């Protein structure tokens, strides 16, 4: 699809339907040549693209960027066309997508419901086949959650999480092959030891029965394909997610003029942490990988991505900030594990359910290979 064709399609949709925060129908220059030549990839509205507005999920924060973030520049240098920005929650701080002062994107599969977040606009644009891939980022599931909510593939590559660093960048696509192309990776096929965990890790959520059935079905498929499949227990107690929460609060402390109630709560909570508490939460966060390796003798963890279907737009934000944060954790009680360990993780749709595959003793190529095999098994 050309930029002109995309412009015509966007003109027939509302902002809530297309998920774009901003679009430039005239962009033609400034892009390199390479393996992504001509591929339109919108940037998430947390990342700067020179000459485009960046709102950070709040219209009051909007400024025109003078430079381009390195991750986006790399896409440009490889031939991609960055024709616009997609909606996100304020500063990317929630697992849903309700930007302040701008339309909340709507889930194409569940009208009136959230597409997930914080990369909600990216998921909407891909789910409506407006683009083949959209840039996204993930500090607690923000690639994989909207992918699962919208029936897509969301891949968080392995990253260095040490020092309390939960976030990295990636993409939402409709298939695994596009992910492999974007990363210039050849998915690896090898026999893996796969642990199955349907019990929520970070909150006592009630998991939808169909989601549990789908995990069992996928486990049988992997076993039939020759993988070793075993059940695994919870890897740690409440302390780990408490450490993650305090790291998130700590990183929020410097935010000026927060707009949403949840971000205001995170900012206030972060500013209330003592130096000792900050050091303790980072140490706890960084120790999660070691605890997981001790608890599980597996290569990959298999679980649902979400505990239940996407709630209505406004559901989370109608709650008090503390209840909002807890409700989000009930909805997505597995993904954040891999923001703490730094392991690669992917959500792949199976029978309308997001299936989560996370690397414990595996790498990016292993996870893409296992996800590709799961796609093939459904054909």
Automatic annotation (TrEMBL):
This is amidase. InterPro entries: Amidase (IPR000120), Amidase_CS (IPR020556), Amidase_dom (IPR023631), AS_sf (IPR036928). It catalyses: a monocarboxylic acid amide + H2O = a monocarboxylate + NH4(+). One of its GO terms (molecular function) is amidase activity. Its EC number is 3.5.1.4. Transmembrane segments: none annotated. It is an enzyme of class 3 (hydrolase). It comes from the Bacteria. Residues 26-160, 187-351 form the Amidase domain. Belongs to the amidase family.
